[in-house]
Amino acid sequence: MYSQLRLLFDNFTLILISVVALASFFPAYGQGAVIFDVITGLAIALLFFMHGAKLSREAIIAGATHWRLHLLVFGCTFVMFPLLGLVSKPLLLPLLGMPLFIGVLYMCALPGTVQSAIAFTSIARGNVPAAICSASASSLIGIVLTPVLLKLLLDADGGSASSTLEAIKKISLQLLLPFVVGHLMRPLIGKWMDRNRKWLRSVDQSSILLVVYTAFSASVIGGLWQTVPPKSLAILTVVCVVLLAIILFLTTWMARKFGFNKEDEITIVFGGSKKSLATGVPMAQVLFTGAAIGPALLPIMIFHQIQLMACAFIANRYAQRPETPEEKISLQKA
To answer: Which of 19, 33, 126, 278 could form a disulfide with 121 if both were Cys (CB 3.0 to 4.6 A apart)?
Structure first.
């Protein structure tokens, strides 16, 4: 399972890079850009409808009582991460420039991942029900909280982001409404969704790729690669590595400091250290406009691949620990 998960993510990353290259050399413009904008809007609605329909209420209830764990994960995702981005401004702004630094702040304000956080927790033999609850809640809360956090992190006149209330209104209509409708329809389509998770994942990823192409097309036409040279991309990659290393250390340290067991520690590490590309890409379409979208997306796209490689290694290390007596009993019953 570990090798299959790595292969899947590597393939998607290669396709993602190819889509960025395609948008760089053959961007959509004119009437084509208008058509892609309409298709992208429908793809985003479908993406969040599917997220809502896949959300299991039973799994949420099973993990929801572990409030200390969820509080720590949310604190890492929506407090500690944004603060790290904010305090790094004196160092990062001269190195990256304002467009990419806003992208770093945007990444720091995003919710955690759902699918990969749960998958890595499962591989590492962590608390999977709590991971499902925490990751799903983070994704849902982030739809509203991310634009608020981004506005707080930016100056009063606020870079390229829309006004907070307007952004929340747009996000509620384009992301939250399809999510809620999808979840309300789960009793009718949930079993079909569960049976077809494999090819629905392809639909999920195709929607992200379409949004990336549309977003980068607009940015390339607006002069993206003139404002973001290769040196800045190299520095941004190092920044993402350092941010991830800091957050992985802090989540591990706090989980042990507050007395959580190993299974809960795993859930906290993978839940509190990850940022969602699946949420970040469509949300950027709402929060940013024109040429600002590309620089806003570059940090989360780079961070996404780094977090997958690092967490795959960490999950494998966790999985190699000896089985507990409770795990042995559970395996015998199975």
So the answer is: 126
Q: Residue 159 above 50 pLDDT?
A: no
Q: Span 2-317: which CATH code? A: 1.20.1530.20
The model's pTM is 0.80
d(CA 28, CA 186): 36
Query: Which residue has tokens 């800045």?
Result: 232
Classify 90 as helix, strand or coil: helix
| Closest to 137 in 3D by CA, of 78, 196, 49, 82 | 78
**How many Å apart are CA 138 and CA 166, to the nearest integer?**
22
Handedness of CA 184, 286, 156, 139 (dihedral sign): positive
d(CA 12, CA 334): 34
Q: Could you say which DSSP state residue 163 is in? A: P
Instruction: Tell me which residue has tokens 């993206």.
Output: 224
Give strand ranges (E) for 211-300: none
Interacting residues of 148 by C-beta distance below 8 A, sequence separation 6+: 164, 168
Count the Cβ atoms, other than its own, within 10 Å of residue 200. Answer: 16
DSSP character at residue 291: G
CA distance 222 to 86: 27
The first and second tokens of residue 137, run together, are: 């809640």
Q: How far apart are CA 273 and CA 286, in angstroms?
A: 24
For residue range 124-140, what is the model confidence (pLDDT) as tens digits? 888 888 888 888 888 88
pLDDT digits over 189-238, tens only? 878 877 877 777 777 778 778 878 887 887 788 777 777 888 889 999 99
Say how far apart CA 21 and CA 234 lie, in whole Å: 17
Residue 273 main-chain phi, psi, to 5 deg: -105, -5
